[in-house]
Amino acid sequence: MKTPHLTPWRLAGLLAAAVALLLVACTKPAQPAPAGATLVLKAGSPGPVINPNIYGQFAEHLGHCIYGGVWVGPDSPIPNTRGIRNDVVAALRELHVPNVRWPGGCFADEYHWKNGIGPREQRPKMINTHWGGVVEDNSFGTHEFMDFCEQIGTQPYVCGNVGSGTVQEMMEWVEYMTSDADSPMANLRRKNGHDKPWKVPYFAVGNESWGCGGSMRPEYYADEFRRYNTFIKNYPGNRLYRVAGGSNGNDLNWTEVLMAVAAKQMNGLSLHYYTLPSGNNWQKKGSATEFDEAAWMATLRNTLHMEELLTKHSAIMDKYDPQKRVGLIVDEWGTWYDVEPGTNPGFLYQQNTLRDAIVAGLNFNLFHQHADRVAGANIAQMVNVLQTMILTDGPKMTVTPTYWVFEMYQVHQGATSLPVELTTPDYKLGDQAIPAVSASASRDAAGKVHLSLVNTDPQQPVTVTCTLEGLAAKAVTGRILTAAEMNARNTFEAPNAVKPVPFTGASLAGATLTVALPAKSVVVLEL
Q1: Is the pLDDT score of 9 beyond 60?
Q2: Are residues 261 and 362 in the same domain?
Q3: How far is residue 352 from each of residues 98, 289, 430, 432, 480, measured CA to CA in Å?
Q4: Sign of the Cα pseudo-torsion (170, 176, 179, 181, in order)
Q5: Could you tell me if 348 and 394 are in contact, meaning their C-beta atoms sit under 8 angstroms apart?
Q6: What is the pLDDT of residue 281?
Q7: Contact call for residues 389 and 406 (beta carbons, < 8 A)
Q8: How far apart are CA 101 and CA 84, in angstroms?
Q9: In Å, how far from its chain's centre is CA 412?
C-alpha cells in the first residue's frame, strides 16, 4: 500500500482532529464504578432477642380479606376445611405466622362479638360502614377465627370494641374465649360447640381511638383504657398481653400522655404508620404498579421515616419505662396506594410488586435494630388488602413479592440480634438521597448467623465488604429476591414471576465476607 504524503496542511488537520478528540474524551463524564459499602458484623456482642411477633399478620373484615380470602364457607366448591380455604392455610403455614390480629382495624370498634356466634343462619347482619358499605353477615366470627388460627398454627391477637362497645361486652368476650369456669359466658361457649377455652395471649383495648375508634383525645382514651382494662380478666390458664391504642405516626404527644397516665396498666402500646408514595396526600396516593423511579424513590424514602418514629416514640417510652417492660407494637404498617382500577374503593385492593418487597425488607431491618423496644408488628393486611401476602380471585390464588420477604426473613424469628456497623453510599435521584444498603443480622438457636441485606438502588449494584467479628464462618449460602423491572409482580397467570432463587454472589476469605449485591434486591445469607 502506498503511504500518503503528509503535507504541512494535512499534518495540521490531523493534529487538530487529535486535539478535538482529546478534548471530547476529557470532558465526557466518566461512568461511575459500582459503589461499595462496608459492614462490621459483631457476632461476639449479641443484642436483644428479635420477638417473633414482629412477623405478625392482620386480618380485618375489609374487602375480600376475610370473605373470599380466608372464608368461603363449608359448601364452597373451593377446597376448604370447615369453610376456611385450604390453599391460603397452606401458604400461611409456610411463614410460621406468630399471631393474627382480628377483627380490625376500624371494623373492630363497630363489631359486637355476640352477633358472630351461634348458628350462622341465625346471626344478625350489619352494615360495614367503614369499608364499602357492604352487608356483613357475621358468618365468620369468634369460633371461625379461632379455627383459622389453629389451622395455620398461630396465636390470636383479638382487638376489642371501645368505640361503640361497653365495658361489660368486652369483659364478657374475654370470659367467653378464655374461661373454663361454670359461668354464663363459658357455658354459652360450650353450648355453641367448644367445650374447652381457647388461649388468647394478645388483646388490644380498642383501635385508633384518636380516629375511627372514637375521635378521642389522648387524655380521654388513657382513662378509658384504664377503665376497660380493669374488667378484662386473666382467667386460670390464660394471661393477656394488653395492648393500648397508640399513636397515629408522628403524634408524639399521644405516646407521652398514654405512658404518663397508663403505662403501669399496659403491656404494649401500638403505633400505626403507612407508606404512601405521595407522603400525606391521601387523595392521590399513586399506583401500585404503574410508577416511575421518582415514585420508587419517594416510596422508599417515606418508608425509612419509620426509623425516626421508632426512635422518637421509644425515647418517650424509655422516660416512663426505663426497664422496657412495655413493648412497642407496630400493629399496622405497610404500603398504601390507590386501589386497582375497576375495584371497589372501599375494598383497598392493590397489586404488590418488587417495590413492596423492598419496603418489607427495610421495615424488618429497622424492627430488628430496635428489638429492645419493638415487641410486635402486624402488616396490613394478610389477604387481598393493601400490602398483602396473598391474592385470591375465586378459586385462584397467588402469593406476592412481600410474601417471599416474610418467608426469607423468618430465620430471624426468635433469634438473637447481632449489631452491624454499616457504612453505605447513597442511592441518589435528583436532589433526593437515601442509604443504598440496609442490613440486619441475628444468630438462631442452632448457632447459625443470618445476614439480611437490601439494595434500594434500582439501577446500580453495590459491593458490600463485611468484616466478621467473633465469628469463624466456614461457609456462606443465600437466597435473593429481585427482578428485571421495578414493578415486577406475580399474577394468577404468572405466579412465579418474582420468587427467591439461590444467591451465589457471596464469598468468604477468612474473616471477610464479600457480597455482590445486585440492584433492587433483597438477600438473606446464612453463615
Answers
A1: no
A2: yes
A3: 22, 7, 26, 24, 18
A4: positive
A5: no
A6: 87
A7: yes
A8: 17
A9: 14
Task: Say whether both 455 and 358 belong to one domain.
Answer: no
**Amino acid found at 208:** E
Looking up residue 141, the CATH number of its domain turns out to be: 3.20.20.80
Catalytic residues: 208, 332
Query: E strand or H helix at 222, and its extent?
Result: helix 218-231
CB-based burial of residue 16 (10 Å sphere; 0-12 exposed, 13-18 middle, 19+ buried)? exposed
pLDDT of residue 153: 98
CB environment 376-385: b (16+ within 10 A), e (fewer): bbbbbbbbbb
Residue 413: pLDDT over 50: yes
Does 289 share its domain with 246? yes
pTM over 0.85: yes
Q: How far is CA 13 from CA 3, 18, 22, 411, in A?
A: 17, 9, 14, 68
List the CATH number of the domain containing 449.
2.60.40.1180
**Does a structural domain hold residue 459?**
yes
Backbone phi and psi for residue 480, each to the nearest 5 degrees, phi listed first: -130, 145
The span from the CA of 141 to the CA of 194, in Å, is 13
Q: State the average pLDDT over residues 321-338.
A: 98
What tens digit of pLDDT does each residue of 221-259 get?
Answer: 999 999 999 999 999 999 999 999 999 999 999 999 999
Given a cut of 90, whether residue 168 has pLDDT beyond it is yes
Q: What is the separation of C-alpha 34 from the centre of its chain, rounded to a whole number of angstroms? A: 30
28-37, 106-115, 391-400, 500-509: least confidently modelled range: 28-37
Q: Is residue 342 part of a domain?
A: yes
Domain containing residue 462: 35-46+419-526
Write out pLDDT tens, residues 356-401.
Answer: 999 999 999 999 999 999 999 999 999 999 999 999 999 999 999 9
Residues 125 and 212 in one domain: yes
Does position 5 have pLDDT exceeding 70, yes or no?
no
Please name the amino acid found at residue 97. V
From 360, 379, 414, the end of a domain falls on: 414
d(CA 63, CA 328): 28
Contacts of 269 (CB under 8 A, 6+ apart): 243, 244, 246, 255, 258, 259, 317, 326, 327, 328, 329
- pLDDT, position 435: 98
Give the cell for residue 139: 358468618
Predicted pLDDT of residue 18:
41
Do residues 64 and 72 touch, judged by C-beta distance below 8 A? Answer: no
Average pLDDT of every residue of the chain:
93
Judging by DSSP bridges, how do beta strands 35-42 and 462-469 pair with one another?
A: parallel
pLDDT of residue 14: 38
